[in-house]
Design brief:
Length: about 190
C-alpha cells in the first residue's frame, strides 16, 4: 500500500507466532517461558499500567490525573528494565529522585487528610475504587519482583520504586475518597 505513490505505510505486526509454544523473547533476545518469574514481573507492571489508565478516567482532580500519567510513562521504563536482565538493550532510568518525588507527593496529600485510625472500605467512589485496585496490583507486582530478586539480580531501585508507588496509590485513593463514613472501625477484639 502506498501513500502518494512515494511512501510505504508501516504496519506493525500484531502476531509473530514466536510465542505459540509458550516462550517469549526478552529485550536482549533470550528466550524464556512465558510463566517465568521475570515475565510475570514485567507482565504485572503492564497490568498495573493498564489499571492506572482505567483509574485515570474516574479521577476529577487534574493534578492527580497528571501524576498518574507520569507514573504510567515511568512504568514503561520499569517493565523494560525487568525485560532486559543483561542491561544491554535498556539501561536503568530510575534514580533516587524518583523515590524522593514519590515521598514528597505522599507528604503533600497526607497533610490534607484526616488521620485514619480505621480501615478503609475500598470503593466509596469509582475513582477511589479504581485506585485501590491499582494499589493491589502494584503490591502483587512488588511481591513478584521480590521473588524474581531471590532468583536473579534485580536493580534495588526497582523494588524501592514499586514499594513507594503502592504508598502513593494508597494516598491518592484516600485523597479521592468521598464518603469517609464507609471507613470501618479497627477492632482489636478477636474474631468470633
Amino acid at each position: 500500500m502506498a501513500i502518494d505513490n512515494k511512501k510505504e505505510v508501516f504496519r506493525m505486526m500484531i502476531y509473530t507466532r514466536g510465542g505459540d509454544q509458550g516462550q517469549t523473547s526478552l529485550l536482549d533476545g533470550t528466550r524464556v517461558p512465558k510463566h517465568s518469574a521475570r515475565v510475570d514481573s514485567y507482565g504485572t507492571i503492564d497490568e498495573l499500567n493498564s489499571t492506572l489508565g482505567f483509574a485515570k478516567n474516574f479521577v476529577e482532580d487534574a493534578q492527580i490525573r497528571e501524576q498518574l500519567h507520569i507514573i504510567q510513562r515511568e512504568l514503561f521504563a520499569v517493565a523494560a528494565e525487568l525485560a532486559d536482565p543483561s542491561g544491554r538493550e535498556f539501561s536503568s532510568k530510575l534514580t533516587g529522585e524518583h523515590i524522593t518525588r514519590f515521598e514528597s507527593w505522599i507528604d503533600v496529600y497526607v497533610a490534607r487528610l484526616n488521620p485514619a485510625a480505621k480501615f478503609i472500605v475500598p470503593g466509596s467512589s469509582k475513582a477511589s475504587g479504581a485506585l485501590h485496585m491499582a494499589r493491589t496490583v502494584c503490591r502483587r507486582a512488588e511481591r513478584l519482583i521480590i521473588a524474581l530478586a531471590e532468583q536473579e539480580p534485580v536493580n534495588p531501585l526497582l523494588l524501592k520504586y514499586v514499594n513507594r508507588l503502592s504508598d502513593v496509590l494508597y494516598t491518592l485513593a484516600r485523597t479521592v475518597e468521598e464518603e469517609q463514613e464507609l471507613m470501618t472501625e479497627y477492632s482489636t477484639k478477636p474474631l468470633q
